[in-house]
Design brief:
Layout (H helix, E strand, L loop, with lengths): L2 H29 L4 H25 L5 H21 L3 H10 L12 H10 L7 H22 L3 H8 L3 H23 L20 H18 L4 H12 L3 H19 L1 H9 L1 H19 L5 H15 L2 H12 L5 H15 L3 H11 L4 H21 L9
Helix pairs in contact: 1-6, 1-8, 1-10, 2-4, 2-16, 2-17, 3-4, 3-5, 3-8, 5-16, 6-11, 6-15, 9-16, 9-18, 11-14, 12-13, 13-14, 13-15, 13-18
Length: 395
C-alpha cells in the first residue's frame, strides 16, 4: 500500500469513530443528567486538550519520527475510548476528555492531523497536492457520515438485547478505542524514515510571518465554528424539534455525503480561480445558510438549509491545507501544519461553552447567528490579506 493510501485509510478509520461519538456524546451526557451548559463545558475540555497535544506535535514533533508519534497517539485513542466507556461522573469525564482524543466538532481536531498532513504533502508531486488533500478530506467526510448513520443501529440493538441505551453507548465508546488499534495497524505499513532519504523537518523559518498570519485568521474561523460543533447542533435538534437519534444520524450521514462529493470540485475551482478564492467564495454562502437556519420556522427548513451549507462549507478544507503546504518550504511543513491547526483548536475551546450557555437560556439559536457571522468576517479578511500571496504553482 502506498504511503498516501495508508494515510487516507487511517484518516477514514478515525473519522468513522468521530462520526458516531460526536452524536452519542450529547445523548450519553444528557442521559447522565448533565445540562446543555455542562455538555458545552465538556466539549470545551476535549478541544482544549486536543489543542495542547497538537501544539506539542507542531512545535517539538520535528525531533521525533512521525511514525513513532502516530503510534503513541493511537495508544492514547485506544485508552480514551476504554476510559470514557467506564466513567460516569462529570469530573472524571472532563479529565478523560481533556487528556484524550475524542472529537465532538464534526471535523478533525487531533494530534494526528499535523503529522498526517506533513507526510501527505510529500507523497506526491506539487501539482497533485490539492487532489491528494481532497481525497484525504473526502475519505474522512464520508466515513464520518457513515459513523453518524451507524448510531441508528442502537434502537434495534436495544430491542434485540434488552440492554439499556446508556450501556450500548458505553460499548460504542469502547469500539472507538478499538479503532485506535486498527489505526496503529495501518500506520505500521508506513515506511520507516531514514535520515539519508527523508526530507528534514524543522521549526518555522522563512515562512514564519505568512504562517502566523494565516494561523490568526484560521483562529477566527475556528472560534466561529466552535458555536456550531456537531455535538451541540445535534443537541439543539434533539431539544428544539424533538428529532430522534436515528433521524439526526441519518441527516448527518446524507449531509456528509453531499459535503464529500462537493469537495471534489475544490481542485477544479482552485485551478480556475486560485486557492484563496475557492476557500472564501464557497464559505460565505455556506455561512449565510447557517445564519438563516436560526430564523427557520420548522425542522424541514432547518435541515434543508443545513444540507445546502454542507454542500459548500467543506470545499475550503482541501484548498486550505494545500495552500498552507504550498507557501512554506518542504522542511517547514510539519511545523506549519501544527502551528496553523493548534490556534484553530485553541480558538474553538471557549465558544462551545458559550454556545451551551446560550442554548440553555434562550429558545432562539443565537450560536448559529454568532458563529456564521464570525466566519463570514474571516472569509472577507482572508480575501483582503492573502489573495495576492500565491503559491508557486499559481504564479
Amino acid at each position: 500500500m502506498r504511503p498516501s493510501a495508508t494515510l487516507i485509510a487511517a484518516r477514514a478509520v478515525r473519522a468513522f469513530g468521530d462520526g458516531f461519538t460526536a452524536l452519542l456524546l450529547p445523548v450519553y451526557l444528557s442521559g447522565l443528567g448533565f445540562s446543555a451548559f455542562r455538555v458545552g463545558v465538556l466539549t470545551t475540555a476535549t478541544l482544549l486538550g486536543s489543542a495542547g497535544l497538537t501544539l506539542a506535535v507542531g512545535l517539538a514533533g520535528h525531533r521525533y519520527p512521525a511514525k513513532r508519534l502516530l503510534f503513541a497517539t493511537c495508544a492514547l485513542m485506544a485508552g480514551t475510548g476504554l476510559a470514557f466507556s467506564q466513567a460516569q461522573a462529570f469530573w472524571p469525564l472532563m479529565l478523560i476528555g481533556f487528556l484524550g482524543t475524542l472529537n465532538p466538532s464534526g471535523g478533525d481536531v487531533s494530534p494526528f492531523l499535523p503529522l498526517e498532513q506533513s507526510l501527505l504533502a510529500h507523497a506526491g508531486a506539487p501539482e497533485q497536492r490539492t487532489m491528494l488533500f481532497t481525497r484525504y478530506s473526502v475519505a474522512g467526510t464520508v466515513t464520518m457520515a457513515l459513523g453518524a448513520l451507524a448510531v441508528g443501529v442502537l434502537a434495534p440493538l436495544k430491542g434485540a438485547t434488552g440492554l439499556p441505551q446508556q450501556v450500548l453507548i458505553q460499548g460504542a465508546f469502547a469500539l472507538y478505542g478499538l479503532l485506535g488499534v486498527v489505526s496503529y495497524l495501518l500506520y505500521r505499513r508506513l515506511p520507516d524514515e531514514r535520515v539519508e532519504t527523508e526530507t528534514p523537518r524543522t521549526p518555522l523559518g522563512p515562512s514564519r510571518n505568512k504562517v502566523l498570519g494565516l494561523a490568526a485568521l484560521f483562529s477566527l474561523d475556528s472560534f466561529g465554528s466552535g458555536f456550531t460543533v456537531q455535538s451541540l447542533l445535534a443537541l439543539w435538534l434533539f431539544q428544539r424539534f424533538s428529532l430522534s437519534l436515528p433521524v439526526v444520524g441519518a441527516f448527518f450521514f446524507w449531509s456528509g455525503l453531499f459535503s464529500a462529493v462537493s469537495q471534489f470540485l475544490a481542485p477544479v475551482l482552485a485551478r480556475r480561480i486560485g486557492l484563496i478564492r475557492t476557500m472564501a467564495y464557497t464559505h460565505i454562502p455556506a455561512n449565510l445558510c447557517l445564519i438563516a437556519a436560526a430564523f427557520a420556522p420548522n425542522a424541514a427548513a432547518v435541515l434543508t438549509l443545513f444540507m445546502v451549507r454542507a454542500m459548500l462549507s467543506q470545499m475550503d478544507v482541501p484548498a486550505r491545507t494545500s495552500y498552507v503546504m504550498a507557501i512554506v518550504t518542504p522542511a517547514e511543513r510539519a511545523a506549519a501544519a501544527g502551528v496553523t491547526n493548534v490556534p484553530r483548536s485553541l480558538a474553538s475551546v471557549v465558544s462551545p461553552t458559550l454556545a451551551g450557555l446560550l442554548f440553555s437560556v434562550s429558545a432562539f439559536a443565537w450560536p448559529l447567528v454568532i458563529g456564521g457571522g464570525l466566519k463570514i468576517v474571516y472569509d472577507l479578511l482572508l480575501l483582503r490579506l492573502f489573495q495576492k500571496v500565491r503559491p508557486p504553482e499559481e504564479n
